[in-house]
Write a structure and sequence with these properties.
heterodimer, A: alpha+beta, eight-stranded mixed β-sheet, three-stranded antiparallel β-sheet, 7 helices, 13 strands, B: alpha/beta, Purple Acid Phosphatase, chain A, domain 2, six-stranded mixed β-sheet, 14 strands, Calcineurin-like_PHP (chain B), Ap4A_hydrolase (chain B)
């Protein structure tokens, strides 16, 4: 009984795993706990919403970020594949896949989903496990990645504060992948019997997501929702699949890559 | 016309299979092996497992395997009463079909079922339950379990698009006859985007297309203010323009007639550069065939269908 109460206190008061237990190279945790809503499990760093402050003390710059994100993606996909977890790309990461099978250069994070069954499998057997990956081009001695599952994972209802069910965290740079779960919609009748939902109440039709397609992302095998084009248009609007400009980036159709434009009074001939 | 018509630059989806197939030269009406111009091509719209209706339609066109070649526009299975019977008949007749969205879903589901039973052992039993999946997924899983390797092989070999060159014995001046190349695809094609860069998802699912961006959409036109038009309207405009350009210059791209299915709500759609053959057979409409002879002459045949699905 005591043990249960203690565990609950840890979950509700402290949130993600205590710094002392998981620390790597930074001297103190930069997690921004105070401004988060009470009960929120995963926190982000005070210097960036895309870094875990337990593992980093600074934000990665634009130029260096992409290599670390790619490694984050590779290690996540290969580990989930080894563990038999059904996972697929969503949101901005799916949009990057649609354009050129790569992370969008202006993206700070990666978005993936897993099935409920896979989430329970991770929670039951792999929570708080650390995976060492050899990354000869990025880290001479390899790099550790932490798989952390949100203890609220079994609560199926609406909970936008704890909509992130698990995190895949780079223990060197603090970059992470948020893992959300697509759940059977047990509460609301709306959307029909085939409706699936995420904890933040985003809902999807089963047949738009499944059967998952097999494709390639950042040169790794990956799964993609069945009706990828419809999902992307619903989420980002038609122009997301059409516009070759986004912010200060332009899609170079010949090379098939998004290129950052340096605006110094130079007008591109196609503008 | 295009404010930002850059659709087609993104890499878009993959196609696990044959993207294009050309009609075998021996099957071309008026081709090298048909000097007397006796051969015919018989195109048929979405069959959806309606085997009885398909047989009746073949009788109506006087189908003879020595002379005729059957080409289906996809969605030959699902919804109707006898998907396996239709596949058996198509195999027996040496018929071809392009891949429809229903075949695509079946093939992707097959890959999932095979894979998941390897990695998560207890998924195979659960996957067939409609309670944990969806009504459609459950039906597909059941149908897949009934299929023999020959059925799956036939589905897998369906190309995304089937190309038929212009018929050699058609006089170029006979404008009322089909005197251009024909492309068969299940749902539609985006004009101005090369066939190599068409997104397979849309080739098998599109109904409409945005006037300005040319982004296709699987939904129908929603009201008069919608910026979308039915895809074949835009296709027709473009092909006419290509033809006119050909009159003054060496053609860069040949205009083509697209034969398709998929859109049963629009029903039979016959336009200068497109033939929509899905006349809602499985919902109690008709099953339609377009017969093309060596002179480029088209004849339409159709038979009534039982109502299997509303």
């Amino acid at each position: 009984m005591f043990a249960v109460v203690g565990l609950l206190l840890v979950c509700y008061v402290l949130g993600d795993a205590p710094f002392e237990q998981v620390r790597t190279h930074v001297e103190w945790s930069r997690q921004n706990v105070d401004e988060d809503q009470p009960g929120k499990y995963f926190h982000e760093s005070s210097f960036s919403g895309h870094h875990d402050g337990r593992f980093a003390d600074r934000q990665l710059g634009y130029e260096e970020r992409n290599d670390h994100l790619t490694a984050l993606c590779h290690t996540y996909l290969s580990t989930m594949n080894d563990l038999g977890i059904e996972t697929w790309l969503m949101h901005g990461t799916l949009l990057g896949w649609y354009w050129n099978r790569k992370v969008l250069p202006w993206d700070n994070d990666l978005d993936v989903m897993i099935t409920e069954k896979s989430l329970y499998h991770l929670a039951n057997y792999y929570n708080m496990t650390v995976y060492h990956h050899h990354l000869p081009e990025l880290a001479a001695h390899g790099r550790d990645y932490l798989l952390e599952v949100n203890p609220h994972y079994a609560e199926g209802g609406e909970d936008s504060v704890n909509r992130i069910d698990a995190r895949w965290v780079d223990m060197d740079t603090g970059l992470f992948i948020d893992v959300t779960t697509l759940r059977r919609n047990r509460t609301a009748k709306e959307g029909g019997e085939d409706a699936l939902m995420v904890k933040d109440l985003h809902s999807y039709k089963f047949d738009d997501v499944f059967p998952l397609r097999i494709s390639v992302f950042e040169d790794f095998p990956v799964r993609i929702p069945y009706a990828y084009a419809d999902l992307l248009v619903n989420e980002y609007g038609e122009n997301a699949l059409v516009d070759m400009k986004y912010g200060n980036h332009r899609f170079d159709a010949e090379r098939g890559v998004w290129v950052k434009q340096e605006y110094a009074g130079v007008v591109h001939p196609l503008d | 016309m295009q404010r930002n018509g850059t659709y087609g630059l993104a890499q878009a989806g993959d196609f696990d299979g044959t993207r294009f197939r050309g009609l075998a030269p021996s099957l071309l009406p008026g081709g090298v092996s048909d000097p007397n111009g006796e051969r015919r091509l018989v195109f048929v719209g979405d069959i959806h497992g309606c085997k009885g209706e398909l047989s009746a339609l073949l009788r109506a066109v006087g189908f003879d395997t020595r002379r005729d070649h059957l080409i289906a526009t996809g969605d030959v299975v699902s919804k109707g009463p006898d998907s396996l019977g239709v596949l058996d008949l198509l195999i027996q007749l040496g018929a071809e079909s392009v891949r429809g969205n229903h075949e695509d879903r079946l093939l992707e589901t097959y890959k999932t079922l095979r894979k998941s039973s390897e990695t998560l052992p207890d998924t195979a039993s659960q996957v067939e339950s409609a309670a944990t999946t969806s009504h459609g997924y459950h039906k597909d899983a059941v149908l897949l379990r009934q299929m023999k390797p020959a059925h799956l092989k036939y589905l897998r070999e369906m190309p995304l698009m089937l190309r038929i060159p212009s018929l050699p014995q058609v006089a170029a001046s006979t404008s009322e006859y089909v005197n251009h190349a024909v492309l068969v695809a299940h749902a539609g094609i985006v004009p101005h985007v090369s066939l190599e860069r068409q997104d397979p998802y849309f080739v098998m699912n599109m109904r409409t297309i945005d006037r300005e961006t040319h982004l296709p959409c699987s939904q129908p036109v929603e009201g008069p203010k919608d910026t979308k038009v039915r895809w074949f309207i835009l296709w027709d405009t473009y092909q006419t323009r290509l033809l006119n350009a050909n009159n003054i210059n060496v053609p860069l791209v040949e205009p083509m007639v697209v034969v398709y299915g998929h859109d049963s709500k629009q029903g039979l759609q016959l336009h200068q550069w497109s033939r929509g053959l899905d006349s809602a057979c499985v919902a109690g409409g008709r099953l339609t065939a377009m017969v093309l002879d060596a002179k480029g002459k088209e004849d339409m045949f159709s038979v009534p269908c039982q109502e299997y699905k509303v």
